[in-house]
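Lab notebook, bench 4. We co-purified these components, and the gel suggests they stay together. Before we commit to crystallization screens, I want a quick structural picture of the whole thing.
Request: model the full complex, all chains together.
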Amino acid sequence: MRAIATDVGVQAGALYNYTPDKQSLLFGLLQTHMEDLLEAFRDDASQPPLDRLRHFVDFHIRFHADRPDEVFISYMELRNLTPDNFAQVEALRRRYENRLEAILQSGADRAEFDIADTKIATLAVIAMLTGVNTWFRAGGRLSLDQVIAQYWNMVRKSVVAG
Amino acid sequence: MRAIATDVGVQAGALYNYTPDKQSLLFGLLQTHMEDLLEAFRDDASQPPLDRLRHFVDFHIRFHADRPDEVFISYMELRNLTPDNFAQVEALRRRYENRLEAILQSGADRAEFDIADTKIATLAVIAMLTGVNTWFRAGGRLSLDQVIAQYWNMVRKSVVAG
DNA sequence: GTCTATAATCCGATAGAC
DNA sequence: GTCTATCGGATTATAGAC
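Here is the predicted assembly.
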């Protein structure tokens, strides 16, 4: 709390005019982050599964690359939430995962994708894409467009049918 | 330190007969974990790249699934290392990544793999495989063998040529 | 709405008896 | 080698003046 107060230019006590306690402040950050993620992702179920998947890959990488601090805090501080707050954030995360799983299931149903278990494939793809945040820095060797292009190639090949 | 002391059945002060300070204790854990990882992974460069990659996938998932606590600590406490200790652990991690990158590069050189950038592919594969630890629990819906089989399928398809 | 001051608690680490 | 006791410092949160 003292570090936050210093960053925003007030004394620590003044923060309690804006939040009842530290837990509420942290929970608000994580909840807003997940709600923004869910709201920002637009999926069109009338499109071909491969197009929907390509949009997901592009969206996921860009959304997270634009918010490295929120993503870092959301992951590192997740275990400092109270059990109730943790359950709420986890429920939002599961809703987001289900959006991807619906795309993979749609492609599998049409035999356009070859996926043994859509739940595992969902977790595998999200882990791979979120991993970009651990190393990507703007101005590095590759542009974000180049990074997205290669990840899309790998994700596409990993799920498409023969 | 008090929590560790309680777990091992001594008072907090007694721990300092075994470690000079908390930082050394943490660094020792992370360093040993990474050295064990590097030592346990056997790669045979005379084998076909696809066989070497399959072995890496199998090894990586099993090694990490067998040590969920060490993996969790290694990730969550990495930023609590001093800059010097952090650099040493990062160097060990990079050595491990290079082992996988050598496999991918070998397959790309023989045109058996189709990979745009081996460094990105390395990070993508490791992120995907390490993600297993966030959800896998022994005794769950799928056995570790089944999980490995599907991840191997996805990794293989994501890198093989045409 | 912000400040200073402080309460109450927790932490890593040390000292000294046994 | 472990214990009890404690030091010095950091933490979240509150109280009350302005």
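The helical segments of chain B are 2-8, 22-40, 49-65, 68-76, 83-109, 118-130, 144-159. Worth comparing against the SEC data before the next meeting. The first helix of chain B runs from residue 2 to 8.
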